[in-house]
Amino acid sequence: MASNTSHDGTGPRNEQMIANMYGALRSEMNQLYSKITELEMEVSEHSLVMGAIQPLDPSRRCYRMIGGVLVERTIREVLPAVQRNKEGLEEVVARLNEALEKKKMEIADFELKHKIKIRKSDGDTNKAESNLKEGSAQGVLVAASD
């Protein structure tokens, strides 16, 4: 009876509950990261579309997908709508970034409260450093014209 957790089982069960809660917090943070990335890609696509159609004649017809239906409009009608959508997406991304920061703080507080420390093996650290060094030497190869 040297261990107070051997008979009542509260120690390991409590540790498992803490580990599950920590995993859930990390999962929520990863979901926020992925949603932010997805929406930032949409913002980028909106910017590309705006850049492509802005120099064109405003009376020129274009097509826009609205709720799965392809609709014919003019650039004059479409450009403001694309701009509004882009601004709305940027606001959502900003709110998600705030939520992500709160989640990071919540995880940090949880780690401090429950004395959770993430251990990384030395092999993984060396591998990450070598990948970083290799990545910094990469570039774009452009063929010279004769």
UniProtKB/TrEMBL annotation:
The segments labelled Disordered in the record are 121-146
Looking up InterPro entries in the UniProt record yields:
PFD2 (IPR027235), PFD_beta-like (IPR002777), Prefoldin (IPR009053)
A molecular function annotated in GO for this UniProt entry is: unfolded protein binding
Q: Which residues form a coiled coil?
A: 79-113
Q: Where is the composition biased (Basic and acidic residues)?
A: 121-132
Q: Which domain of life is it from?
A: Eukaryota
Give GO terms for biological process: protein folding; response to cold
- Keywords assigned: Chaperone, Coiled coil
Any one annotated GO CC term: prefoldin complex
Q: Which family does it belong to?
A: Belongs to the prefoldin subunit beta family.
Q: What is this protein called?
A: Prefoldin subunit 2
Please give the organism: Iris pallida (Sweet iris)
